Amino acid sequence: MASEHSEEIHSQKPVIEVEPPKLKGYCYSPDEAWKARDKQELLSIRIETSLRCNLDCIYCYSLSAHEIWSQREMEYTKILDVISQAHELGARSVVIIGGGEPTLYPHFKKLIKFIDSNGMTSVVFTNNTTMTRKLAKYLYSHNTSVIFKLDSLRAETQDYFARRRGTYELIMKGYQNLKDAGYSNVKDRKNLRLGASFVINRLNIAELPYLWRFCRKNSVFPNLEMMVPHGRARELMYLMPTREEWKKAKLDLLEIDRREFGFDWLPFTPLIGCGCLQVLYSLYLTVKGLIRPCAGIEVDFASVSTYSLKEIKNLPFFQLVRNIELHLKGKCFRCVYNHECIGCRGMAFSAGIEEGKKPSEAVCEEDPTCFYTP
Fold first, then answer.
1. CB of 163 within 8 A of CB of 55?
2. Spelled out in words, what is the top-level CATH class assigned to the domain 13-280?
3. Helical pair 208-217 and 243-256, crossing angle rounded to 10 deg
4. CA-based angle 246:252:257, to the nearest 5?
5. Domain boundaries in the chain?
6. DSSP letters for 48-71
7. Exposed (0-12), middle (13-18) or buried (19+): which is 190, by Cβ within 10 Å?
8. Is the pTM of this model over 0.85?
9. Nearest residue to 47 (alpha-carbon basis) of 80, 71, 23
10. For residue 353, what are the contacts with CB-CB under 8 A and spacing of at least 6?
């Protein structure tokens, strides 16, 4: 529970004395983000490879499931071409979201090797149920950071979210394989290579402090995610925590970090302890070969079959997002933390679209989940 002084503690901008660890290839500082934007460069690119998945998570934003595996996927050679273009534009890392479960993609290992051969870091989001000892060693040897699913430390809760019995057991077995492969041997405690991702909602928000401590004690990067109103989650918005619930949860985590681990961070950013400015320095490639500014901004009008990444970056909508600080509305426009936080553009976009606004207007709205009051 947060102390009675939580409001007083967070009434002023914290002085960052000890920043929390970041995940290699996944987190970039505000200075890096703005500098890349100003130089018209990329720092990373996020890609979907396939919709193949062995789970059926209730909150899945991409509707990944076995019945739509046959949906046409972008050719592997085109993915390699896009990554090469991103590399030429300065990208240091490739975040493999999958769309489904990335490790089931037929060309997964070749893709990891290609990224490594270009001197880039691959970051793989995985449900971890397929993480064998051999695969874990392969990823570790090819400069890959791994973020595995961990929505709960209770087997029944995790299995319920995944809609597959035995999921939790497989996740933890995969976690052990990752540790045995070397991911627990942390040489640089500021740049971790292993993370755990938890999609928080009202069914597991009470567990958040335990998940957080699990990560901190085991040198695992905690990747706290909100449910976004896409895919299956559109039917589960009643499970979305309120702004006040998010406020309490984040302040409780900050107090845990300050008192137990000596870390300090700004509690208002979408990705806490790390920030999220990816619309400034990244692009999101869907399984169909369409480009978005990020996963939460569902605007699919730019195809890599029609445009190069350099051309896409200069299209009007992407230029608007790249210069978002000039167009922000509401309290996001007035916020004194604009350098390190521009709110979640995906949540702002979704809220604006629901209000009937055009994409270019919606993406500029204030983040409806942010509890900061200017």
1. yes
2. alpha beta
3. 30
4. 125
5. 13-280
6. EEE---S---TT-SS---GGGTTS
7. exposed
8. yes
9. 80
10. 359, 362
